Amino acid sequence: MKTLYLFNTLTRNKEEFIPIEAGKAGMYCCGPTVYNFAHIGNLRAYFFEDILKRVLLFNGFEVNHIMNITDVGHLVSDDDEGEDKMEKGSAREGKTVWEIAEFYAEAFKKDIALLNVLPPSVYCKATDFIKEQIEMVECLDKKGYTYKTNDGIYYDTSKFPEYGRMALLDVEGLEEGRRIAFSDEKKSKTDFALWKFSPKDQKRQMEWESPYGTGFPGWHIECSAMSIKFLGKHFDIHCGGVDHIPIHHTNEIAQAEACTGEKFVNYWLHGEFLIEEKGKMSKSAGEFLRLQTLIDKGYSPLDYRYFLLMTHYRKKIRFSFDNLDAARNGFNNLKSKIKEVKSDLKELYDVSESDNVFRYREKFYEGINDDLNVSEGLALTWEVLKDESLSAEEKIFLVNDFNKILGLDLDKIEADNIPEEIIVLANKRKEAKANKDFKLSDDIRQQIKALGYELLDKKGGEFDIKKI
Ligand code: AMP
Ligand code: ZN
Fold first, then answer.
1. What's the pTM value of the predicted model, to 2 decimals?
2. Does the Cβ of 42 fall within 6 Å of ligand 1?
3. Which atom of ligand 1 is nearest to the CA of 45?
4. Edge-to-edge strands of the sheet including 317-318?
């Protein structure tokens, strides 16, 4: 197995990936809150996790990939205040929260499938694991990490000395700010809800009995409880977008480590944001671009995947239609080039052991294993296709292999089936050119063009034929 390096937010360093169990990788990814469609920024997070998973698979790991679906408990502010996102979706559409959750979870699965994001091994819905979440609250309660307020059971972050370490939080500084701005019952600004009580005068659509009273779980507890349920108390990788570092993931660590007394996760990976001219794209801001919006404008989902592949996951991407157009052009050119090479395939023979294949594969590995440098992998794909010292068979073998990471369906591209009539005309033109009859040669080229094909001249009078 090759050495894989990943940037770990815990240490702010690229570290060698050493799994807890040899040959296996357990990976938990924070999934969507299903009160609306995913926007193309959200999809960037799942795309980055897909690359990570594909790189782990390419390196020979067996990957257990768990993704939650948040269908309860996520309040609009990411804090413990404000409206419940699911209830907000329900009021907006006049459907029950359960219907909303079902509809948007399905829409999400369709979106990621269109982007060729491999589905997780397990999707777990927060509402299916309420028992586990209550048990974790009880565990924290027994160990003295909680206190009760009028509206719920809270985690007392002052009891967890390591609180905020990954996010490099200045907890004391936050406290100073809070004395002026906040007057709620929380003892400290960083404390957060583990269980929220239902309002006394109102029945919520989603509520459950618990030893603490009727209510619903705080947002963060679902991920600690479900990741431990599926991957164990201590597992390899946890990911999400960078916005999760200071609150959601910080709180997940505090809950899990206080309860189990063990280290929770070895490697934390975070994807940077997709931004627009006007700033961060966000669902709660109301207007946002969906994958379907791009499809409606004539782009294919894989044009968007190609666009995402061009930037490293730890760098921001500025989205604009001009940038997307440039990506689409690049992708179209790549597909044409592959078609062209495929039409040069003569007989298929095994090239897997060839020196050229070995050399390029090593280079590809080096890039993707250096903290998922897929843009380098994409550039290398171009280099392979242009390298005259490689046979068509070697090129196609490598492109198909690299596609396991790129996920652009490059292996499905077929050579244009050129009609016999066009081949006859092209050969006549070759003859005319050899006889230096340039007038005839040009006429035939035009004739071929009128029939929907284009001739690309190569060395030695040879040619390729491309469908226009
Ligand atoms: P949500 O459905 O709001 O819980 O977000 C789902 C995922 O998308 C999380 O991992 C977020 O960190 C991520 N995310 C949200 N906005 C963006 C954005 N503009 N660019 C990239 N990732 C984002
Ligand atoms: Zn989470």
1. 0.89
2. yes
3. 22
4. 279-280, 274-276, 317-318
